[in-house]
Design brief:
elongated, alpha+beta, binds zinc ion
């Protein structure tokens, strides 16, 4: 049981509807991760008409195309 594969949480991106899986880089902010990547986050931000700079200085973007 060295790798907990199959037990990792996953989410569906509300923009592209792709499922993305928990990554170690998100261990501290998984509850804040919504989109699969920066592109989708920007698309949704623009769609809702709010700016998303100066949040907490955290980069919680996924790597687009990973997987
Ligand atoms: Zn997406």
């Amino acid at each position: 049981m060295s790798k907990p594969e199959g037990f990792l949480p996953s989410r569906t991106c509300p923009v592209c509807e792709q499922t993305f899986t928990w990554k170690k880089k998100w261990s501290d902010c998984w509850h804040r991760v919504i989109y699969c990547g920066a592109d989708c986050r920007e698309k949704d931000s623009k769609a809702q008409g709010f700016e998303d700079h100066g949040s907490d200085g955290e980069n919680i973007d996924a790597e687009v195309g990973a997987g």
